[in-house]
């Protein structure tokens, strides 16, 4: 088995004078009845080396936690329709720009918080600020994925929430391996990213975001929901 860069993505990046490899790992299509430890153990084990940081996308963690919902089963309230109309839609993802994803944000974060976030965003947008809605609503809102034209079936008809207990998941996955590695659970897309969970509190999460900010796993149909960060030795 070999590792190849995803299309239009580089395998290496230099951050703060240190070069890193970002090695995407191809897996099978992860389904709700899969176990995250089994998937990660099977597909990551052949590639890991001491000192590596394994990064796992929040989406496959959430899917295996039963947090993927068919769109047809989500019944948005009127407020979800109204709020979703004000969300900026981009080619990189629909976010909360559809009633079904906004409905799940209302359920996950609570109606008062989402309304407050929308109010803050409406005010600060007048002054040219962007992103305040998600800053106020929090990572649960940021982590909700809706379908795009490039989403792999069957998830082109699903809403996927953020994962639960990402720090615990990262620690459990680290324990699978007999190598000196760490694990992070990431929410990375073509607009940026966040680290949701880490197996080691000493990991510099801001550094991890810088290393992954160009989304080396891709955002379409690559089927590479795992990857390895590895320092390049001088």
Structure description:
With 234 residues, the chain is α+β, with helices and mostly antiparallel strands. Helices cover 33% and strands 19% of the residues. It has nine helices and eight strands. The chain has helices at 36-44, 58-64, 78-84, 99-109, 111-126, 132-137, 139-142, 166-174, 205-212; strands spanning 12-15, 18-25, 53-57, 68-70, 158-160, 182-189, 192-198, 226-231. Strands 1-2-8-3-6-7 form a six-stranded mixed β-sheet, sandwiched between helices. It has a two-stranded antiparallel sheet with strand order 4-5. Strand 6 and strand 7 form a beta hairpin. The two termini are 26 Å apart. The model has no long low-confidence stretch (mean pLDDT 90).
Summed up:
Helix content is 33%, strand content 19%.
Shape: globular
Reading the helices and strands in chain order gives EEHEHEHHHHHEHEEHE
Fraction of residues in β-strands? 15-25%
Report the span from N to C terminus. Answer: 26 Å
What is the arithmetic mean of pLDDT? 90
Described by strand count, sense and barrel closure, the largest sheet is:
6 strands, mixed
């Amino acid at each position: 088995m070999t590792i190849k860069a995803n299309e239009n993505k580089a395998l290496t990046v230099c951050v703060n004078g240190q070069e890193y490899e970002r090695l995407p790992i191809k897996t099978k299509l992860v389904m709700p009845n899969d176990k995250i430890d089994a998937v990660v153990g099977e597909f990551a084990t052949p590639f890991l080396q001491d000192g590596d940081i394994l990064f796992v996308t929040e989406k496959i963690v959430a899917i295996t936690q039963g947090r993927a919902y068919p769109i047809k089963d989500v019944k948005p309230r009127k407020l979800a329709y109204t709020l979703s109309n004000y969300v900026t839609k981009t080619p990189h993802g629909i976010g909360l720009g559809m009633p079904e994803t906004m409905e799940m944000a209302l359920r996950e974060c609570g109606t008062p918080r989402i309304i407050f976030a929308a109010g803050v965003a409406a005010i600060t947008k007048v002054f040219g600020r962007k992103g305040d809605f998600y800053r106020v609503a929090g990572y649960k809102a940021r982590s909700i994925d809706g379908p795009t034209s490039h989403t792999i079936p069957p998830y082109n008809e699903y809403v996927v929430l953020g994962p639960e207990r990402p720090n615990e998941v990262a620690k459990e996955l680290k324990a699978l391996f007999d190598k000196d590695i760490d694990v992070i659970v990431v929410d990375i897309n073509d607009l940026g990213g966040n680290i949701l969970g880490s197996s080691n509190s000493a990991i510099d999460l801001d550094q991890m975001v810088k290393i992954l900010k160009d989304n080396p796993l891709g955002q379409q149909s690559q089927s590479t929901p795992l990857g390895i960060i590895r320092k390049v030795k001088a």
